[in-house]
Amino acid sequence: MRFPEFPRREQGENVIPLINIVFLLLVFFMLAGTLSAPDPFDVEPPESLEGVETAQPEEGVILLAADGRLALDGVELQLEQLTRRVEAWLAEESTEPVAVTVKADADVPAHRLLDLMDALRDAGLQRLTLLSTAVDS
């Protein structure tokens, strides 16, 4: 007795490996995108009509909030602690001139910013960069 042969179904493309790769890439970019630590408080820098594009510094970023709070590299400090840290940092980096970036809030009174700059100068800092956001004109 001979049974009839059923036609074979064609094997379609297997998309499971492609889905695995897409999810792996998704997880990779989600993790790689969150490697920088968030700032301890929000600082909205002032706007500038002219400016120079500079690379984001890797260390030596001082945040100055509108209410006077200070942070160095993501750690909230008082002014005295900040100047001691800068002095220690300058003692370690004696071969190269050290530059610090100050990211001050747009609502910071000028006297607070000047007090910070004077304290940093008294600590021995010679190069200081003020961060601002560029405005499209």
List keywords for this structure.
Nucleotidyltransferase, domain 5, alpha/beta, 18% strand, elongated, 137 residues, 5-stranded mixed sheet, 32% helix, two-stranded parallel sheet
What report would you give on this structure?
- With 137 residues, this protein is α/β, with parallel strands linked by helices.
- The chain has a domain at 47-134: Nucleotidyltransferase, domain 5, CATH 3.30.420.270.
- The protein is 32% helix and 18% strand.
- It is built from three helices and seven strands.
- It has helices spanning 16-32, 79-92, 110-122; strands at residues 47-48, 61-64, 70-72, 75-77, 99-104, 127-130, 133-134.
- The strands form two sheets. A five-stranded mixed sheet has the order 4-3-2-5-6.
- Helix 3 (110-122) links the parallel strand 5 (99-104) and strand 6.
Can you list the strand order of the major beta sheet?
4-3-2-5-6
- Per CATH, the architecture of one domain is 2-Layer Sandwich
| Subunit organisation of the chains | single chain
- Based on CA atoms alone, the radius of gyration comes out at 27 Å
- How much β-strand is present in the residues? 15-25%
- What's the mean pLDDT score? 81
Envelope shape: elongated
Q: Sketch the major β-sheet.
A: 5 strands, mixed
Q: Percent of residues in helical segments?
A: 25-40%
CATH topology of one domain: Nucleotidyltransferase, domain 5
At the first level of CATH, what is the class of one domain? Alpha Beta
The CA-CA distance between the termini, in Å, is 88 Å
List low-pLDDT spans.
Answer: none
Structural class: alpha/beta
Could you give the order of the helices and strands?
Answer: HEEEEHEHEE
Number of helices: 3
